[in-house]
Design a protein that fits this description.
The chain is an alpha+beta fold and 696 residues long. A hairpin with a 7-residue loop joins strand 1 and strand 2. Helix 11 crosses helix 12. The protein binds adenosine-5'-diphosphate and magnesium ion.
């Protein structure tokens, strides 16, 4: 065995370990639940708990924890030791089936969006056997769902699992109607690409904005940014390489298939992509990946920034969710195969996604909404806030031929010759990539590219699963009644194109023309989170999610409230941090700089040199004007903050953030950055952009 295969999954209670350590009957029962997602036979829990405990203790674990995903977007855990006291003063290590299945964390300090009053503290966590338990930091971690005493869902995993069941059910209906008798379950698959920045830890600690907000709030443009495009796919620096090596090992131990790593567009920016897996596991793994990245970085004297826009003026970080559907017989339903034009199931599933994305543009946009991502969406390196779908010319051509009822003429497969004798010829892909599309078909999956790097991918996947399932359900209704299935597939695609063609766009999404064109087409352009989030509780959306049992109306309203509140709080914290930095450090830095200039000027005067119009006097004058302006803008920023805090209710607060606070922060920052650009290096209190971006 190679070292990699030896360590891979060594900290996971996976199928191999289960088979080894559970009795035949218990293994069979648990395996069935995992494979078919059928209800767990609770009588096996005790046996599983004992096996898990023994395995975990052998691996050095002392504690166990229910590991869950509250609405904070990160994971939560509360550790209990296996220790159980004995009458004779000794102790044994215990872990029961009951403790495996159910936990009772205090739910009152997690966001509930008004679903629960704080005095109603009780919450439950319940074991999710479909995601493997694992060991992290000497604790056995048990993936769980999280709900309140009253049964309201307080986490992201529960609705995700529900939406996975839903999309499976509706997909199987469609497949059955098309004559597939074998598939019994369809599993959503996801591979999330994760972007991040690495900066030196000492510099990170020297900046209040990075420490408190995860991004810089001030910072003059460095002489060099990403204009030479020399970082993308560039050679990886040794210190970063060491980090990546350890990161991979840690992820592999947790059974995470970390595969691809490379430098990204911005200096100090990198990307990691795992091999795809089922959506539930992929979601758990992505949460773990983000956590492990931060920890490993710390051990290497680095800080890992997962914020969507750590630096103004260079690219921000996204997360691309590659999404597809796969049957339990191993077929990828979005794989076009050799002859896509004849592959009716493929064309139908493709149509369902296109139709669903158009029908629910608002939900797609909301799935990508956050305070952090607002700094990125619509800025020129990221997908715009307008949702559209890229299919490429070949698939659009097939759809066109179905719409017009004419036979599809396939373009001859092109060969690629490089003109270098030694390089063999190879077949060209039928379509190019489109890096600007927010939602692109990429060969055998869709890539949802709008998401922010810090996101949990649970929310976006809940949306995708639900809207596609809803569309598939309506197709199944038609197909089940239709005598000629192939003709009905064509009819469904024709109807889909008639209603939803406007969402298809193969061009450059970053161009100004597209914004105008999209408006003409009547596509939504929800520029900020404050515009997008409230639409979550529209009548149409409430109907959609309640109809399918994903959320109750109360749960939706609470989630909307949490999203709006978080948007407001994050921005308010940023504004307060900015004010603190300006008043405590930037204005005093400007003062000391001016003092130095004034001292020099008066010293020169003392020597009889006319310094009134000299360099020092002119520099001081400019700095003084900038300082006055910064002081005034900071006062205005404080007023803006008060206006936000005085606004009534989550929506009004969010509106004030968008209309007053965010623009005022930008205005204020501009003066601080102008002072930084002019100030002497030894006056400046913070590591500069140049230090941060090129200092590792
Ligand atoms: P690309 O070159 O188009 O970016 P990659 O092969 O690098 O594609 O894949 C990018 C991500 O998409 C990876 O995480 C990969 O595992 C994932 N992916 C590939 N196929 C599927 C699929 N069928 N379902 C979900 N994700 C997939
Ligand atoms: Mg990609």
């Amino acid at each position: 065995m190679s070292r990699v295969t030896e360590i891979f999954g060594s900290m996971v209670f996976n199928d191999v370990v289960m088979r080894e350590r559970l009795s035949k009957e218990v293994y069979k029962s648990l395996h069935k639940t995992i494979a078919t997602r059928s209800e767990l036979d609770a009588t096996v829990a005790d046996a599983v708990a004992v096996a898990m405990r023994d395995w975990a203790i052998e691996k050095g674990a002392t504690h166990f924890t229910h590991w869950f995903q509250p609405m904070t977007g990160i994971t939560a855990e509360k550790h209990d030791s296996f220790l159980s006291p004995q009458p004779d003063g000794s102790a044994i290590m215990e872990f029961s089936g009951k403790e495996l299945i159910k936990g009772e964390p205090d739910a009152s300090s997690f966001p509930s969006g008004g679903l629960r009053a704080t005095f109603e503290a009780r919450g439950y966590t319940a074991w999710d056997p479909t995601s493997y338990a694992f060991i992290k930091d000497d604790s056995l971690c048990i993936p769980t769902v999280f709900c309140s005493y009253g049964g309201e869902v307080l986490d992201k995993k529960t609705p995700l699992l529900r939406s996975m069941d839903l999309v499976s059910e509706q997909s199987v209906r469609v497949l059955r109607a098309l004559g597939d008798t074998e598939t019994t379950r369809v599993l959503g698959t996801v591979g999330p690409e994760q972007e991040y920045f690495l900066v030196d830890k000492q510099m990170y600690r020297a900046r209040e904005d990075l420490m408190l907000c995860g991004r810089t709030l001030l910072g003059a443009k460095p002489p060099k940014g990403q204009e030479l495009e020399d970082h993308y796919f560039g050679a990886i620096k040794p210190r970063v390489m060491d980090f990546m090596r350890e990161l991979n090992e840690e992820l592999w131990k947790l059974g995470i298939y970390a595969k691809t790593e490379h430098n990204e567009v911005a200096p100090a920016q990198h990307e990691l992509a795992p091999i795809y897996t089922d959506i539930n596991t992929a979601t758990d793994h992505n949460q773990l990946t983000m956590e492990v990245m931060k920890k490993v970085a710390d051990r290497h004297g680095l800080a890992c920034l997962l914020h969507e826009k750590p630096f103004a003026g260079v690219n921000g970080s996204g997360k691309h969710v590659n999404w597809s559907l796969s049957t339990d017989t191993g077929r990828n339903l979005l794989d076009p195969g050799k002859w896509p034009e004849a592959n009716k199931p493929f064309l139908l599933f493709l149509a369902a996604v296109v139709g669903a994305v158009d029908e629910h543009q608002d939900l797609i946009r909301i799935a990508a909404a956050s305070a952090g991502n607002d700094n990125r969406l619509g800025a020129n390196e990221a997908p715009p806030a307008i949702v559209s779908v890229y299919l490429g010319s070949e698939l659009c051509g097939i759809f066109d031929s179905i719409e017009s009822g004419t036979p599809y003429c396939r373009a001859k497969a092109a060969r690629m010759t490089t003109g270098v004798g030694a390089v063999p010829e190879f077949k060209k892909d039928s379509t190019d990539r489109n890096r600007t599309s927010p939602f692109a078909f990429t060969g055998n999956k869709f890539e949802f590219r709008m998401l922010g790097s810090a996101f949990s991918i649970a929310g976006p996947n809940i949306v995708l699963n639900t809207i596609v399932a809803d569309m598939l359900g309506s197709y199944a209704d038609r197909l089940e009644k239709a005598p000629d299935k192939d003709a009905e597939v064509d009819a469904i695609i024709r109807d889909m194109l008639r209603a939803h063609r406007r969402i298809l766009f193969n061009g450059n999404n970053y161009s100004e023309e597209w914004v105008r064109e999209a408006e003409k087409r009547g596509l939504l352009n929800l520029r900020t989170s404050a515009d997008a989030i409230p639409l979550f509780v529209s009548k149409k959306n409430i109907e959609l999610f309640t109809k399918h049992g994903i959320f109750t109306e109360a749960e939706m309203r609470s989630r909307c409230e949490i999203l709006l509140e978080t948007y407001e709080k994050v921005n308010a914290i940023e504004a307060k941090t900015m004010l603190d930095m300006i008043r405590k450090y930037v204005l005093p830095a400007a003062d000391s700089c001016m003092r130095g200039l004034a001292d020099t000027a008066s010293g020169l005067e003392h020597l009889g040199i006319d310094a009134k119009k000299g360099a020092q006097a002119r520099a001081a004058k400019k700095l003084s004007a900038l300082t006055d302006a910064l002081y005034d803008e900071a006062q205005t920023l404080e007023k803006a903050l008060a206006e936000v805090e005085g606004a009534d209710g989550a929506q009004k607060k969010a509106d004030a953030v968008r209309d007053v606070l965010v623009p005022q922060m930008a205005k204020t920052r501009a003066y601080a950055d102008a002072i930084e650009a002019d100030a002497a290096a030894d006056c400046w209190p913070y590591p500069t952009y140049g230090n941060l971006l090129f200092g590792v």
